[in-house]
Amino acid sequence: MSILEGKNVVLGVTGSIAAFKAVQLASTLTQAGAVVRTVMTPAARDFVSPLNFQALTGQAVHTQVAEMDREGRIAHVALGNEADVLVVAPATANTIARLAAGMADDIVSATWLTAKCPRLVAPAMESSMYLDEATQANLRTLADRGARIVPPGTGRLASGRDGVGRMAEVEVIVDAIRLALGKGGELDGKRVVVTAGGTREYLDAVRFIGNPSSGRQGVALAEAARDRGAEVVLIAGTMVVRRPAGMRVVKVDSAAKMQAAVEAETSGCDALVMAAAVGDYRPSNVARDKMKKSGGPVTLKLEETADILAGLSGDFVKVGFAAETENLVENARAKLEAKKLDAIVANDVSEADAGFGSEHNRVKIIRREGSVTEAGPAPKTHIAEKVMDVVVELLGEGGE
């Protein structure tokens, strides 16, 4: 289940051209199962209608500090008390100054003062305003009081200029909300390393041997660990999916670099989930320049890459993946024993709508003591939650 399922999210919208992104944010959160209640400053209504948020969230929108809710309660007090997380997006320079000063003369700032849940601010303004010392000082004040700042991006601004100040993309803000909600979760205080994506072994300056791994399953696993409060390190090979926020990302390409990163990052970790599709072979010799056509067949001599999991030592939970096309359980059990794993996630990559490149998967999670948990067919986010359930159990048992 998504960490957003059933959570009360209060969304504060202020007077910025980036308010259109807040509509998308409200929709994304609602689709993820959150209950989104929107509060808007009077200036925000100049950019987007309250009806947009009400239609997408199914919840009443409040725009005045003196409003009452449907139960006859003072709206900003009830909203602040019931919120699991409060995010102001977009947050203008004016609103940031008002929050830092502790003002409460609009419903966004009044709700901010009432809320005792995690509070996030996503600035949106011109570069000169964002970089001004007054705005930076106000952001530092909010951060010192425990607020989480979601930094703006760089790009084209409302003025037509390029610079820093664009409100963070919706996916980044959602990641920040999930990170905030995950604090104190069942993996709080644990350090989890996850590998994702494929590897490339170069033949020459431009050609390589690779595989079609998209990185979706590994990224979903990293997000699931983050959402449960873990400190996550994502070792990312070649991927087609976005690298998530709220974790440290180590980029690699080859099997050798993946091995070096895993060995370094697992020092002192609590769990490793090895979801990356690491190539089994690499060219014995790599041409320095691009190879030209010879007019005839070319013979490649390959050598095995190192078995990363089998070579690891250390007292931490180890979960591997087995991508197979035949004898799924038998081959997976053999790998589990040979690599001395606590569990292995086996999937048949020859199945339709599962495995490489797909947004869905069907797996068997096999533990060392013999039990088998089947999951799917289901979205890879669901599979990730099932795998992370096993990781939590193994950590509770002290590994196998």
Characterization of the model:
By secondary structure, the chain is α/β, with parallel strands linked by helices. The chain folds into 2 domains: 8-181, Rossmann fold (3-Layer(aba) Sandwich), CATH 3.40.50.1950; 186-397, Rossmann fold. Helices cover 32% and strands 24% of the residues. It contains 12 helices and 20 strands. The strands form 5 sheets. An 8-stranded mixed β-sheet has the order 13-12-9-14-17-18-19-20, with helices on both faces. The chain has a 6-stranded parallel β-sheet with strand order 3-2-1-4-5-6, sandwiched between helices. Helix 11 links the parallel strand 17 (317-324) and strand 18 (343-348). Helix 4 (93-101) crosses helix 7. The chain is globular, with a radius of gyration of 24 Å. The protein starts with 7 loop residues before the first strand and ends with a helix.
